[in-house]
Amino acid sequence: MTTSEPVRNRLPDLIVNGTLLVICLLWLVPTFGLFVSSFRTRDDVLTSGWWTVFPHREWATISTLPLPNGDHNQTMTVAGATGTFEQFRDGIATPGNKRVVWVGNKRAGRIEVQDQEWTGVPKFTLENYFDVLTGKEYQLTDINGVKHTYKGDDLSGALFNSLAVTIPAVVIPVVIAAFAAYGFAWMSFPGRKFLFAVVVALLVVPLQLALVPVLSDYVRLKLNGTYLAVWLAHAGFGIPLAIYLLYNFISALPRDIMESAVVDGASHFTIFFRLIIPLAAPALASYAIFQFLWVWNDYLVALIFIGSQPGVQVLTMRLAEIVGSRGDDWHLLTAGAFISMILPLAVFFTLQRYFVRGLLAGSVKS
Questions:
Q1: Which residues of 341-356 are buried (b: 16+ CB within 10 A; e: fewer)?
Q2: pLDDT in tens, 254-307
Q3: Using alpha carbons only, what angle is made at residue 165 by residues 237 and 156, rounded to the nearest 5 degrees?
Q4: 165 with 265, same domain?
Q5: Core vs surface per residue 40-69: b (16+ CB within 10 A) or e
Q6: By residue range, what is the domain housing residue 219?
Q7: In a domain, 229, yes or no
């Protein structure tokens, strides 16, 4: 074997790993930028990019001069730089790696002589998160020294509303699907294969297709505007996938364990709670992650079935309001976005050791 053969054999792995690394960077760099922006002040976010928190050279004013006399519409010479008003506004380089900048208009302003200096000590603050989470009033001072009073967005209530919607919408389909998957996998009853085929067929039915008829039924049952409406909607359309995923895992469990339990006199109820639930923990956790992320990040279903009343709005709806009312307040938008990400990240990293095992449920028969 020549020395080039090992390199040739590893080339596919290098290509795959390199591609995955590039994709991860493409996702992580903007996310990291938003994370950094959530801790920066309003003026810093509006006047400079997030990457300026790293050590870099930037222009700093070393001296200030009054406006030159004469006609400002003609070519002028100031501090060793010659140019028109428009050129001075953009900045004119001078010997010694300095530049001269006209700040203001032709009638009122100043001339700044600037030099590049190393900087990189960022000014971080937690006020963005306090302003978003609380409804208290706070003041911001703009670059002209004028103070403006704003009221916080108070996302804390929406955060608890999202929890009130998401937790039952995860628990209900997991419980129902676990019972159903066990029945399809280890119990014999008439029409079992037909019913399972129906469950698989329901996987292709999108929730958006049923919004209007479901909403009509909710109005007749007076469920619209309640959390129960959202729980039932998410549970109803999440159960088919949960049954299919759990069935693949439960049906792949060793038959010897089930037969031994039956010989020992265990009922289906005992087998389900003593054997199936502990053994199916990876599949249950995997589906719980999916369902939690879907419901937590949902906007459409919550908007239609709960409504836009301030007291019942979930986090996604409140963030949409912030985008509409504070479209230029990126320091608040980024803080609100990361508040909405904290809990999903905690759930994922808590259950991630089960995630891959759950995704491979039933792919290998024992």
A1: eebeeebeeebeebbe
A2: 888 888 888 888 888 888 888 888 888 888 888 888 899 889 988 888 888 887
A3: 150
A4: yes
A5: bbbebbeeeebebbeeeeeeeeeeeeebee
A6: 156-359
A7: yes
